[in-house]
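=== RUN LOG ===
request id: a7f3
mode: sequence -> structure
chains: 1
length: 701
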Amino acid sequence: MRGSAILRDVRQLTMLPLRRETIYHLVFNPHGAEQSSLNRLIAADPGLALAVLRLAPRSCREDKLGIAQFGRFASPAAVFELVRVSSENGRFISGESDLGMDKLWLHSVATSHATRHLSRSRNYPHPQTAFLAGMLHNLGLLALAAVAPDEVADLLSSNDTNDAEKMLASEEKRFGASHTTIGNQISKRWGLPAWLQEVLWWHHQPENTMPHDLSDRALVSLVRESDLLISSGQFSLCSATDSTTWALPWKIEDPLAAAVLRGVRQAATFVQDHPLKGSPDELSKQVARAVDLATQNVSLHAEYDWRKQAWDQYVALPPDAAPADLSGIVAETYARALGALGALCYVRNTDGSAADGTFWCDGPRAISLSLEQGNNAKPHSDQLIARLRPVWQQRPKLVVNLEYGEEHLAHVLVWLDEFAAAPNDVVWVQVRDLCTSWFANATHVAQLENQLESLTATLREQAVRADAVLEKSKLAALAEMAAGAGHEINNPLAVITGRAQLLIAEETDPQRRKSLETIVAQAQRIHRMIVDLMTFARPPASHCKPVSISDVIDRAIGLVQREADEKRIRFTVTGGAELPQVSADLAQLALAFECVLRNSLEATDENGTIQVIAERDDQAGLSIKVIDAGRGITDDQRQHIFEPFYSGRDAGRGLGMGLPKAWRLIQGHGGEIQVSSSPQGTTVTIRLRALAASDQNRACA
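=== RESULT ===
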């Protein structure tokens, strides 16, 4: 065949032929077109690797992606179309007859693994891109072998040296162009990425002749070095082709050689004996029938599988799954039912300020972001797409709004496969209705849960208010009872005390005199109890004026300082001086604080510390916490702690009137007092209303 005719056929070439073994695995293997199996085939067939690279959008080809990333664009429909075109052209590559192509195949596979190994050892950031570059570095020679296999086989068999210059000169003489020139022309015509064009043109050139403005000089150097290393070994284009070399031992001393041999051996598992025999015409008919059956099989499986898988995933969700939790299932359902390359489902919150969703392409990827709002803001769908790879941003998409009545439930973006038949309207309606029903149910459940939570919160608030009212009523009743009892007891008690004091004045017997003094002391103790009761029942009238909370705390500490010193207990006071004033009766408020501090002193062991913390409080104005490190009190004790004569301490160690009196005085000042406790100690919190700045100035003037 004349060189000009060969070049003409090369210019008319639309794709590299696939190996017969690749076609067999893709068409006759039920799972051959699935992603995992397809990735292994791509790594073993330069023709399939190039075809899948060309399936990706032009903008995406320039990205430094690998087989797994480019393989996502190869849907089953696109793969079967590749097989159909290859079979219609009548070009197949088989290791049994195309010896020249077998040499090229072994050399390409070995170079790809060598390039990836070197890229990792040299810290090149894109080892998978290096693998593809090594696989396709002899694209021009592969194209020549596709149209003139016998001439290429004769060229390789007659070339007994690995000198690149001599080989390129031999190609120029035989075909009228070298394989680097042919590869460069093909790469431009097929729109291959710039990094691959540079590899095709410069990988045979010395380092010092390469231009400095290459977009990826490191990649070209890696491929050049790998090609030289492989050309000096058993996978050289000049060596004899022998399938027994595929079975060489894996473990050898050189890591690079081990990686190459292991990669070639793995690739060879896909190109063993296969049942595709006969002439190209017979094979074309056989493959065409198989492609039709495989396409129908994929369609039937997709139609059945998407429903089954969708329902299986839906029933596995918890009953209270939120609408945003459905985005992953809906995105995958749309992608599978419509045979789409990818789908994005997202849900916006009530005010439209945020969106949560899932992008599905061979697997889920959660997306969550705050949405820009306003007249100049981009549509919310564009804002979410901006979070995806550029390839998805530039591909055409369809937008689906899932609505129930007038309520917007969710949004779905679908990227269809242009190589597959358009989904019929029935499938569109079925998917939309199914996903809409899921979102409607989830939205209804979420609304019921919100209503239930609101009702529960309201009931809790009512229960707290009812408990507070009951507690206040109970203490008020106790106060009234104490007032009446105190009045009735105080009169006879005064008579007992007066008569006992008269008898003491007349008594000369020391023993009898001591007994009378005991009577007087106990009567006075009863009187103090009655005074406390009367204070609790009917506190004296308050003479309020602006008071600094620091003065109250200092006065209260001074009243209990002697008892604190006896137990070597230290007070630490935080805040207070910078806080606003309160309207209070200084004596009464200090008495309330004294009762609280005395209670903490009783609970604190010797050498302990009591903290007094004064700070602003959003609810009332001021919050004063008295914190001790005692043993704490139980919940049952805490419920009765403000009742008169109730004491959690041992009998005889207090009257049980301190905290009830403090509660009564704080209540009289419009404040509140609360107690919380744990085994590490007890905290008494007093909240008081603060005076406004204007009131303080006016009161203090």
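=== NOTES ===
Residues 92-97, 243-251 have pLDDT under 50 and may be disordered.
The CA atoms of residues 132 and 604 lie 76 Å apart.
=== END ===
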